[in-house]
């Protein structure tokens, strides 16, 4: 066990870095832990160092500045470390390149971001099908295209970001399949226009797609994908405003790759494991930790900032991270009330503006229940344990009273991803059988929330040294 610090921040995205810097600038000793090789999180993901200078120049300048500021600070950083457990006290356990390590701190900020959601369809587990968010990792961090010709599908801003990323990297697009209508995109235009730089970027992306002659099918979704030699035959059809399939306008595409995503859900491994309270907020990505206005969870000393507190985008994550770092400094006595109020007032105003834009984007990513209701019986929902929609719905009909009972009866959510991929969809399926979403609940947090070799937990054993109890008398 390494020495205690004042604060451990888990997650080195915009929220985590700003939180760590703010707390460190107030004099707290701070550790920042991330499983990625460098800071930046999902949005400012750094290219691998081994890729050379030309590739490095493509890195987002905001991310470059974030990493420079972190390097120049007193924050102790631990990259390539996956946190797999958190316990009261606070103790954080991680697995790094040199094995298992544990740290203690007086306070923890979970800034673990989001994970992507895919509404299952027949064929979504085939090779060549990736998530939209996953495709951003391929493009940004590996400089790779999902395929020579790609179909991009789903909902929300990542749809356009990935389509443009593919074109810029020299790939071809068969089409963009958008669950939303054009009216859905324009519904919150005042909020979108409140961030003119991002709004203009969105309009420029639309223009690039038009110039490249890429068909954009609004109010459409993927029906199925099947392997056709090395390619995929993807069937696409119209949907209504709730996401339910509409008969009559089906089309098919033969492509090398399909990337598809239905928005993001908050990554809540730490707060669920620690049994903090959560609330359901469909607009912010489903179950999110219950927080007060200063980012405190219901457990003293545990805070959450960024998309892990609910989806609001990178700009809001950075400001909220700074606010959470200051809240910890205040609570640990490194910032008196007057100084704290002075520091947070302007940040709170900026956060409101940033969240307005983030909320407009988050609305486009909200799960559409009728799309989930249309998942066919035989479609796999839990891809770790191969559990189908039919098995989940049968368990509910036979009396399973929430997602955790469905998990116990079917093994759904028990695989290596611990339900991160299927959890939100299983919750919606349980709800679709006549239960309130709040009653359906969320998968209880379990450790390890990242896969971990068991021999990392115990020192090497010499069997001869084992103290065996004497045999029981006959
Ligand atoms: C895969 C993916 C790709 C995305 N791509 C984009 C994009 O291209 N453009 C865009 O605008 N938005 C993108 N988003 C949304 C974007 O992540 C957020 O809006 C923004 O980055 C939120 O910042 P954050 O600091 O809250 O979280 P993040 O930036 O997600 O940072 C969270 C960090 O926590 C780390 N982490 C999580 N769990 C653990 C653990 N157990 N142990 C150690 N480290 C951990 C992660 O490695 C990550 O670096 C993406 C989201 C996802 C899930």
From TrEMBL:
SoxA A3 domain location is 380-458
What are the record keywords, sorted? Answer: Oxidoreductase
Q: Which Pfam families match?
A: Pyr_redox_2, SO_alpha_A3
* One term of GO molecular function: oxidoreductase activity
At the top level of its lineage, which domain of life is listed?
A: Bacteria
Coiled-coil spans are none
Task: Pinpoint the FAD/NAD(P)-binding domain residues.
Answer: 6-318
Protein name (record): FAD-dependent oxidoreductase
- Where does this protein come from, organism-wise? Acidisoma silvae
């Amino acid at each position: 066990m390494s020495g205690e610090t004042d604060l451990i921040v888990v997650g080195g995205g915009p929220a985590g870095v700003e939180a760590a810097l703010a707390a460190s600038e107030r004099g707290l000793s701070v550790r920042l832990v991330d499983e990625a090789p460098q800071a930046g999180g999902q949005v400012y993901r750094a290219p691998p160092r081994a890729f050379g200078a030309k590739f490095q120049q493509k890195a987002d300048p905001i991310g470059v500045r974030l990493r420079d500021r972190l390097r120049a600070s007193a924050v102790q950083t631990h990259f390539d470390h996956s946190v797999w457990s958190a316990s009261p006290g606070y103790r954080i356990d991680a697995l790094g390149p040199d094995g298992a390590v544990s740290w203690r701190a007086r306070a923890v900020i979970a800034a673990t971001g989001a994970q992507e959601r895919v509404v299952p369809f027949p064929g979504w587990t085939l090779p060549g099908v990736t998530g939209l968010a996953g495709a951003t990792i391929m493009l940004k961090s590996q400089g790779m295209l999902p395929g020579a010709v790609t179909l991009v599908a789903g909902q929300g801003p990542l749809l356009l970001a990935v389509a443009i990323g593919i074109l810029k990297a020299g790939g071809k697009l068969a089409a963009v399949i958008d669950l939303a209508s054009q009216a859905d995109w324009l519904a919150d235009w005042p909020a979108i226009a409140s961030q003119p730089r991002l709004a203009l970027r969105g309009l420029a992306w639309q223009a690039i797609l038009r110039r490249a002659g890429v068909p954009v099918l609004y109010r459409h979704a993927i029906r199925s994908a099947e392997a056709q030699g090395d390619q995929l035959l993807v069937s696409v059809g119209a949907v209504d405003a709730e996401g339910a399939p509409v008969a009559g306008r089906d089309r098919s595409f033969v492509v090398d790759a399909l990337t598809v995503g239905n928005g993001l859900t908050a990554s809540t491994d730490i707060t669920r494991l620690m049994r903090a309270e959560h609330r359901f907020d469909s607009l912010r990505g489903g179950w999110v930790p219950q927080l007060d206005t200063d980012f405190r969870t219901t457990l003293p000393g545990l805070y959450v900032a960024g998309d892990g507190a609910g989806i609001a985008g990178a700009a809001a994550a950075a400001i909220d991270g700074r606010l959470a770092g200051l809240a910890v400094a205040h609570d640990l006595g490194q910032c008196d009330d007057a100084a704290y109020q002075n520091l947070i007032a302007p940040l709170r105003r900026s956060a409101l503006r940033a969240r307005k834009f983030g909320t407009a984007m988050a609305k486009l990513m909200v799960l559409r229940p009728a799309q989930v209701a249309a998942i066919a019986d035989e479609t796999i929902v839990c891809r770790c344990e191969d559990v189908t929609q039919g098995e989940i719905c049968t368990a509910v009909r036979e009396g399973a009273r929430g997602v955790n009972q469905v998990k116990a009866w079917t093994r759904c959510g028990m695989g290596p991803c611990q339900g991160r991929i299927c959890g939100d969809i299983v919750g919606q399926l349980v709800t679709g059988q006549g239960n309130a979403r709040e009653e359906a609940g969320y998968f209880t947090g379990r450790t390890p929330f990242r896969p971990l070799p068991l021999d990392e937990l115990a020192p090497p054993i010499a069997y001869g040294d084992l103290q065996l109890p004497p045999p029981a008398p006959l």
